[in-house]
Task: inverse folding
């Protein structure tokens, strides 16, 4: 069964504030974005029959809002969880299990207000086979394949730094972005080393914020139109590779990216050359490089030069991470929600750094450290052929 | 407050599960034990009772040679608990002669980009972590 164009995102909103928000708990960020997304959809809470959330339980979110959903999705596979929630919602809606699904994210990643404590489990595979070697959060693990990639493909430190520079160019036009000042390759390489070869400015922000989506059937989107044009779900994919970054099959490529994106492109019946706008989860500067190659936008080993030459920057042939990304816009921890928000804004022609004539947008999310992936191919009514 | 007066945090120690106990018993004896599948003949790591390549449960333990090559690494400038004296230090992945890869630390050599060259030859050594002993790797000796 394909879910192509059978459902649509009809409501989308981030929290009113993102960045440093020490006076709002993670749960309230789920709730505030839910209220804003429902208003955006022109819907009432009573229209919602399905709830999906990650970080916090959808049960907690639903009860806090005041509904008892009859479809619940607590899929939690890291930062791409919300892309999987959209996929699952599209399938559930197509199967008749539910009609309106609310997907929420809220994370006090920076201020840590109302956040579950971080616990290390020394019996887990990671606790036994990685933690004893001095890992300390994603910066000390996620980029572990970069030197291998550099050796295999000749990626330079300057090309890696150019990812941060390209995205800062987008952020300059995005008032909500945390960092907007122009950046040079020299600035990036002069920032302090966090985990060689990664410098501070090649690592994502750590912020507070949230976002929510309302997904419903394409039929309902047409028969009960809301205030905004529906954004159709054209193709979806998900995949999981390994909970241990050290066990990646190939340190220069994400198997989860490849599996997830090929599923999504197959379902949508399109290829990379049909894509007008791309979001690739950029927890670190190497992810857009892996993403461009693993999704088939460029050949293996070409992504560093492609970005350094400006092809993903404003005015380039493949606008990528147009909100500034996790490197410049915001990164709450589970950043995937913000990928989808920006894809929706671009398709609705309401983005801060709006790209002309976007009809098909791809959002590629990652979960954990190349542990999992989710892909969404979203399109306007014209792209959906409805 | 620590009654022993030892205020410094220790490096994280692994806690074996029944399925990994044999591996951790080996490291205490200075042996790097990995598993090999009798059905498909592939060696694998980390320890588990069925082969990740073909799902067979017909698997055996073997002692790895300890010879390896440096596959990839990064150099962390953020000290994890117990690593304050070593920062910056490499967190590496090595490829064992038998095929499997594993995360490790590199000892006996400066942890700098100049000294740590990808694909350099390494051999296993062992370091204490709490009550356990973990495999680490050092540049292969000439002998």
Result:
């Amino acid at each position: 069964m394909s879910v192509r164009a059978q459902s649509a995102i009809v409501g989308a909103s981030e929290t009113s504030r993102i960045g440093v928000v020490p006076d709002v708990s993670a749960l309230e960020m789920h709730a505030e974005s839910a209220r804003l997304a429902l208003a955006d959809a022109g819907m009432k809470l009573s229209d919602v029959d399905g709830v999906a959330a990650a970080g916090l339980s959808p049960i907690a979110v639903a009860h806090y809002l005041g509904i008892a959903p009859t479809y619940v999705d607590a899929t939690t596979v890291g930062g791409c969880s919300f892309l999987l929630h959209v996929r699952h919602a599209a399938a559930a809606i197509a199967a008749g299990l539910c009609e309106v699904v609310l997907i929420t994210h809220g994370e006090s990643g920076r201020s840590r207000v109302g956040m579950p404590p971080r616990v290390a489990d020394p019996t887990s595979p990671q606790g036994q086979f990685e933690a004893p070697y001095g890992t300390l959060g994603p910066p000390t693990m996620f980029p572990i394949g970069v030197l291998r990639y550099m050796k295999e493909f000749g990626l330079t430190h300057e090309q890696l730094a150019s990812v941060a520079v390209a995205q800062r160019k987008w952020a300059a036009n995005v008032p909500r972005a945390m960092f907007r000042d122009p950046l040079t390759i020299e600035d990036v390489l002069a920032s302090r080393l966090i985990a060689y070869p990664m410098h501070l400015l090649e690592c994502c922000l750590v912020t507070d914020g949230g976002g929510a989506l309302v997904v419903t059937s394409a039929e309902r989107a047409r028969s009960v139109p809301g205030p905004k044009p529906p954004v159709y779900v054209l193709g979806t994919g998900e995949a999981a590779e390994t909970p241990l970054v050290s066990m990646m099959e190939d340190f220069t490529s994400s198997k989860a990216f490849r599996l997830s994106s090929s599923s999504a492109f197959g379902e949508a019946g399109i290829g990379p050359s049909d894509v007008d706008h791309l979001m690739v989860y950029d927890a670190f500067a190497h992810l857009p490089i892996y993403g461009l190659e693993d999704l088939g936008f460029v050949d293996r080993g070409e992504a560093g030069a492609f970005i350094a030459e400006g092809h993903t920057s404003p005015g380039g042939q493949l606008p990528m991470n147009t909100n500034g990304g996790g490197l410049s816009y915001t990164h709450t921890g589970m950043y995937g929600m913000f990928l989808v928000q920006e894809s929706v804004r671009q398709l609705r022609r309401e983005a801060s750094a709006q790209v002309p004539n976007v009809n098909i947008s791809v959002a590629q999310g990652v979960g954990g450290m190349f542990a999992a992936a989710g892909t969404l191919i979203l399109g306007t009514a014209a792209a959906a052929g409805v | 407050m620590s009654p022993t007066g030892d205020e410094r945090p220790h490096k994280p120690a692994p806690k074996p599960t029944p399925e990994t106990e044999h591996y951790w018993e080996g490291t205490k004896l200075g042996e790097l034990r990995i598993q090999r599948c009798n059905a498909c003949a592939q060696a694998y790591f980390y320890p588990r009772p069925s082969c990740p390549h073909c799902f067979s449960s017909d698997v055996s333990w073997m002692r790895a040679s300890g010879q390896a090559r440096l596959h990839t690494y990064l150099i962390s400038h953020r000290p994890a608990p117990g690593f304050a004296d070593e920062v910056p230090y490499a967190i590496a992945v090595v490829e064992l002669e038998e095929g499997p890869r594993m995360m490790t630390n590199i000892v006996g050599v400066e942890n700098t980009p100049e000294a740590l060259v990808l694909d350099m030859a390494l051999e296993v050594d062992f370091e204490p972590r709490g009550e356990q002993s973990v495999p680490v790797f050092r540049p292969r000796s000439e002998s």
User: Anything to note?
Assistant: The beta strands of chain B are 33-37, 43-44, 59-63, 67-76, 89-96, 101-104, 121-129, 132-139. Residues 21-139 of chain B form one domain.
